[in-house]
């Protein structure tokens, strides 16, 4: 009887030990989970103990980013900080679930799009609705030059922007103006603006000039007159010094400006040993229509400066010659070139320009001008 009692006590003690081990194991698991959810608890406690609200916010924000812990983002009090925190960690860890914790739908879409583009996963866009989904897929298509994704866009305009921006990018990347023919000819300002923005996002450095030019046109309220196709031809022409590309432009005013730009660029690139080039460059001005005079004068001024030829300035019209002598004075930091200007007002303007803009003017003894 005593033996049975003893065995029973031992069994009960064994059960208690097993139960205790289970409890300890559970506590350890809970502790581990708490560490994962809120790592560096002591740091979190220190942040929460900061008395000044702004400093406390900054402490929590820094902790969230340092530990890549999205749960800490939810402890921030400013919605803007919450959104920025989730976006930063989500994009850093490629975790789109954090993007959906952002209350602002625009920021959510931007966050998801960045991750989808970084991971080259159009499926990541599926959680977005309508236009946000299209924008997300379009970003991947543009970044990877993947036209096959353009067909999956819901909006016809978005499909147009998607296809056109990729063709535009290909034209800029290769210098082949034939690709511009695949860019939409629609003059719709919204479509043109969207295409130019998308091309800019492709990080084609050669697109920047055409984008800036387009923005300039918009400032004058003329954007409706120019299509993305025209701007594509313009961009390829100016960036590759290819005036043949200007011929593809449907708008006569823009075509004229294109020829001027190409001629001026070619003149600027010419050297003293390439005098023969100026003849062909000047002949290109003949294609600039109503801008012929401006084109001709500009090319000759560039030629005069590059060859240090003051005599050439004298063959130009009155205002062009003034500008030519001033350009020589400025380029060679020699105020003596201003003396060639016979008009007293223009002469004074040239000298004033030199005094204001040049630090080492040769104004003691006039140098001999070749």
Oligomer: single chain
SS-derived structural category: mainly alpha
Number of strands: 0
The main pleated sheet reads as:
none
Structure at a glance:
This protein has 370 residues and is mostly helical. It is built from 18 helices and no strands.
Topology, element by element:
Blueprint: H1 2-37, H2 41-48, H3 53-67, H4 70-73, H5 79-93, H6 96-99, H7 105-119, H8 130-143, H9 156-174, H10 189-201, H11 207-219, H12 228-239, H13 252-269, H14 276-284, H15 292-307, H16 310-314, H17 318-331, H18 344-357
Helix pairs in contact: 2-3, 3-5, 5-7, 7-8, 8-9, 9-10, 9-12, 10-11, 11-12, 12-13, 13-14, 13-15, 15-17, 17-18
Q: Can you describe this structure?
A:
- The chain is mostly helical and 370 residues long.
- The protein contains 18 helices and no strands.
- Among the domains are: 54 residues, no CATH class; 49 residues.
Keywords:
disordered N terminus; disordered C terminus; single chain; mainly alpha; 370 residues
